[in-house]
Amino acid sequence: MRAVSPSTMRQIDRRAIEVYGVPGIVLMENASRAVAVAVRQKIEEVYGKKKSPRKVAVVCGKGNNGGDGFGAARHLANMGFEVMVFLASPFNEISGDAAVNLKVIKNMGIPVLELKGDGESEKLRGLFDGFSAVVDALFGTGLRGEVGGFHKKLIEAINESGLPVIAVDIPSGICGTTGRVLGAAVKADVTVTMGALKVGLLLYPGAAYAGRVVIADIGIPNRVFEEFEADGCLLEPALIKGYIKSPAPDAHKGDMGRVFILAGSKGMTGACALSGLGAARCGAGLVTLGVPESLNDILEVKVTEVMTLPLPDTGEGTLSEEALKPALEFAQKCDAVVVGPGLSCHRETAKFVRSFVSEYERPMVIDADGINNLSRSPGVLKDAKAPVVITPHPGEIARLLSMTPREVQENRWDVAKKAGETFGCTVVLKGARTLIYSPGHPVYINPTGNPGMATGGSGDVLAGMIGAFLARGLDAVEAAAAGVYLHGLAGDAAAEKKGEIPLVAGDIIENIPEALKYLQKGEKVYGYEIQTYQG
What we know:
Elements: E1 2-4, H1 6-18, H2 24-47, E2 55-60, H3 64-78, E3 82-87, H4 96-107, E4 112-114, E5 133-137, H5 149-160, E6 165-168, E7 190-194, E8 197-198, H6 199-202, H7 206-210, E9 212-216, H8 222-226, E10 232-234, H9 237-243, E11 258-262, H10 269-281, E12 286-292, H11 296-302, E13 307-311, H12 324-331, E14 336-339, H13 347-359, E15 364-367, H14 369-372, H15 379-382, E16 388-391, H16 394-400, H17 405-410, H18 412-423, E17 426-429, E18 435-437, E19 443-445, H19 458-471, H20 476-498, H21 505-510, H22 512-521, E20 530-533
Parallel strand pairs: 1-8, 2-3, 2-5, 3-4, 5-6, 6-7, 7-9, 9-20, 10-19, 11-12, 11-14, 12-13, 14-15, 15-16, 16-17
Antiparallel strand pairs: 1-10, 17-18, 18-19
Helix pairs in contact: 2-3, 3-4, 9-20, 10-19, 19-20, 20-22
C-alpha cells in the first residue's frame, strides 16, 4: 500500500485540479462526507446505535483542513446530529473553498463560535462538556513549526475531553513526514486521511496518535496517483507471500540456499545460535556458524540444526585476523553470509570484519558488531563489492553517520534514506515501524511487531532470517522486506500466546512456522488495520 509525504500529496491535489479539472470544492466535499460518516460510525460504536447521543463539536482552523471540517459539520447536521463549530481563527482569515463551506453552514444556522485566542485560554476548560464526539479539523498536514500558545491549550482541551476524537487527514500537531509531535498533538481515535496514506501516520509517535486510519477516496483520478512515485510503501501480506516460494517437489537441501554466519564471542554464544536458528526456520537448506575456535564445543552442544566451523581465535574468545582466509574460502561455497551477531569489537576482530566486507562478493547481511566494527571506517561499506543489507538499531546507524541516537529518532525516515544513499546498500532501520530503504526504491514501512520484541537476541534472529532469504535467491530489498515482515509477524503470534512482557527471542523463532502459515492462508495481521472509504 502506497504512502506519500504531504508535499507529494499537495502535488497530486494540484494536478487533479489544474490538469484533470477536478474542482477543489469537489475534493473538499468528498473529504467532508467521509469524515461525517466516520464520526457517525464512531459514535454508534461507542454509544450504541439505538441510544447514540447526537451532539458533535467540530474544531476548525483556517485552511482546507478547516474547510473539510465545515463541510463535515453540514453533513452531520443533515444526518440529524446537533453540531457546533469552534473556529480557532478569525472569520476574515477564512478564504477559498473553506469560505464557501463556512458560509453554507452559517446559512444553515449551525452555530459557529469564534475562539479569540490566548485571552480565552481559561475558557477552554470544559469547552466540550455535553458533546458526544470531537472532530479535529485544526491544522492538517500543512502545519509549519511547533504548536504553542492558545492552539496548544486547545489541543490539550480536546485530549482532556475524554470524548471520541476523529481527526481530519492527520491529527493536528503531527508532522506528516516524520510522525513527530510538533509541540502538542491531538490524540485521535480515528483518522480519516484523504486520497492516500500519509507517511506521518505510519511512523511513531504519529502512529500512536492516529488511532484507526481510514483512507478516503475523495475523487482524485487513479491516473493521477500513477503519475507520481510513492514516497513509501506499507508492507502487506500479499507482497511478502509472493516473495516466499514453496520448494519444488524434488528439491534437496543444496537447492534451498547455504548461509554462513560469522558470529559469536566469549559471553555472546547465544547471539550466533539465535541467528543460525532464525536462518534455518526460514528455509535455508544449510546453515553454518563460523565461530572462534575456543567457542566451537559450546556451539556444537547448543545447536543441532545448524553446523559450526571453528575459525582462528585471538585467545580471548574472538575472531582473529587469521580467520580471514579460511572464512573467505568457506564463504565462496555459500549463497549468502551474515556478519556480526555477538562478534565483539576486539581490535583484531574489527580488522577481520573490514577485510572480509571489502573482499567478499556475494550477498551479505551486516548486523550488530559487524556494523560497529565498520563505524570508524564507513568507506569500507560504501566500497563493498557485494549486495549488502545492514540492519542497525538507532545507536548503530548514529555511529555510522556521526549523529546522535536522538537525531536519528527524530527523523528516522530521512536517516534511513541518507544511509542507503551514502553507502549504496539496503538499510533496515530497526525499531517501532522498522524502515527498509534501498536506492531507487520507496521506503518500505513494516506494520508488524510489538514492544515485547525489544529484547536481547531479537535482532540476531532477524539477521539470520534475512540471510536465509538472500540465500534462497531473493534480492537485497526483497529479502529484507520478507525477513522484517515475517520477524514481526512471528513476534505478534508469540505475544498473542504469551503476552508482550515475557516474550524472548526464542519465542520469535518458535513462531516463525505460524507466521508462515498466516501468510499462506492470507489471514489477519495481528493488531493492525487500515480501512478504506469509497463514498
